[in-house]
Amino acid sequence: MKLYTVHLPPETPAAKAADKALFIRDGFSWFALVLPFVYVLWHRMWWVLLGVVAAAGAIEVAARAAGPAAGTILSIVFALAFATEANGLRRWTLARKGWRYAGTTVGGSLEEAERRFFETGVPAAATGRPLPAPAQAAPRPGLAARDSIIGLGPGFAGSARPAR
């Protein structure tokens, strides 16, 4: 099973936002490994493009200083690191553009993940409605303030050590 995060476009009514939802798979991206510049341009990740160009320039400078073998090793390490983080950088870019995180879903394929997400109902965060307040735990009867926590240090009620 693959994990997907779901993102909705900014300032879009909930009914239309569901049609334009983006499902981004978590994990390694083969597309970003093989063609990193194309991946960045395809997804319009301009700040990431600037970082990739800077990293490529730094690798070129290091290769000239240390030799071609070091440049090859650095290029491979950078390509693997970028492919591992490419989808996370895509999520970051969407968040900067105002896209809303709507939740996560799992599926064997993208279609299955979409079906599962919409079958379970779009979460309140996706529709723009406020989330319900969490339920408060009921106080335990007979628990006095002096008996609440033991052993946190000086100054706390019920502390094992006396306050100085």
Automatic annotation (TrEMBL):
The keyword Transmembrane helix applies. The chain crosses the membrane at residues 22-41, 69-89. Keywords: Membrane, Transmembrane, Transmembrane helix. It holds the Pfam family DUF2628. InterPro entries: DUF2628 (IPR024399). This is DUF2628 domain-containing protein.
